[in-house]
Design a protein that fits this description.
mainly alpha, 10 helices, elongated
Length: 188
């Protein structure tokens, strides 16, 4: 059984050999029932995030990363955890929460780090769109490509995204959107 005075390695040892959901249950109860140091809380939130991600529970993964960012002390850690939360929300397809997590990360970041966050999220959106396209979930992939168009892209990247969108709109029979896309690419 987990106790508040346990070290991280002792917590790991106690959880060893248990299934993901049993570990999740133990860690959640431990968080609720005990007053813990910030460092221990952060460790538990990150452990929970890892377990949730392994179980493909991306909403809970994102919440755990968000909580870990809340108890983190350094700006770099906060940015890292908020960005991870945004990635998990993206895998869930929850763009409002993606935007919220990105805003939190941007609030902690300097100009260079903001650019890095934008690049990370651009890659996350591209990857997720490609995965969805491969799984023939075209209408979901369209949402990611449309989100990409709203981001800062190079001219080449913008052309690639428009080409993907054009193809997907055609396959989905979205002729109005296809015409609008062609008009907007002609005007730019």
């Amino acid at each position: 059984m987990l106790k508040p005075e346990m070290t991280k390695s002792e917590i790991e040892k106690d959880l060893q050999g248990k299934g993901n959901f049993v570990q999740i249950d133990h860690l959640n109860r431990f968080l609720k029932d005990h007053q813990l140091s910030m460092d221990t809380k952060k460790f538990i939130y990150l452990k929970l995030a890892s377990l949730y991600e392994g179980s493909k529970l991306f909403g809970e993964t994102a919440k755990s990363y968000d909580n870990a960012a809340g108890v983190s002390l350094t700006f770099a850690e906060k940015i890292k955890h908020y960005t991870k939360a945004a990635e998990a929300y993206a895998r869930l397809g929850d763009f409002n929460r993606v935007d919220e997590a990105i805003r939190k990360a941007m609030a902690e970041a300097n100009i260079r780090e903001r650019g890095e966050i934008q690049e990370i999220m651009k890659q996350v959106f591209k990857t997720q769109a490609q995965v969805l396209e491969k799984d023939l979930k075209r209408s979901h992939a369209v949402k990611f490509y449309e989100k990409l168009l709203d981001m800062r892209l190079s001219d080449q990247e913008r052309q690639e995204v428009r080409a993907k969108l054009s193809d997907l709109y055609g396959k989905l029979g979205k002729l109005h959107e296809l015409q609008d896309l062609k008009r907007s690419s002609d005007s730019s």
